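Repro case for the chain-ordering regression, as requested:
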Amino acid sequence: MGQVELVFDRAKLQFSVALLLVPVKTSQLVNAEFLVDTGSNTSGLSEETARKLGIDPDSLPSEPTMGIGGITQEAIYRGTVEAYLNANLDKTLLKEPRVFFPITRKARKKMIGKVVAQRIQEFPSPNLLGMDALSSINGTRGKLHLDLETGTGIIEW
Amino acid sequence: MVGYEPQGHIVPNVRSLSAMAGAAVSTQVSADAIEAFRSYQDNLRWAKENGRKLERFAGKYVAVANGRVLEAAKTAAELEAKYNNVPGVYIAVVVRRGLRWIL
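-- result from build under test --
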């Protein structure tokens, strides 16, 4: 049994959590913030976070993905990213996370059928903690408790 | 209010790495890295609970540590280069107030 407390952004009604990510190819752990997203069954990495883990977004294959823009082709990392949830090093797994990889309109024309996400302003995408991550904490399924009245959120397992 | 886009920040002092099955790497985590992670958690929480104090930096990146904004800059890279030696520093972009979020 264990748990991690989420951080609540009262203005945006968002819960987030800090994760300590195990790099894929580099040798340095990465601290990163993840928004908790109950609508995603696949976690997501920002391009910036992916690069720090040693993932090259340019080299990723794309797959059909359902999102608010309909079904689009999105970059998928075909591997598993390990992440620690707390200082006790309780671990979750981000399996084949999507990488939010913006491309320019010009590049998009050349890559139709591959990656279509675009960024209209140079702000980074958020990292998303999908339900896949809650399904594999220390090999067990987690529970998610959100209370907007008190602004508290907990993942426990 | 203000929003903060998550960014990944590299933690130094990993003692050793060993390959394991698949693409993932098994990591032995040092006490320093765990302490930096704890600081990162605290800094993230402070930033979320003190959105009003960050509003004036909308459109810029901020580096947060020990209950204060260390500096604001146009890029995360500037702050990462300057504050990489601050364990658990939280660097994020401050999004303008009222921005609609749909993920």
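Ordering looks correct now. Strands of chain B lie at 3-5, 8-11, 16-19, 25-28, 61-65, 68-73, 90-95.
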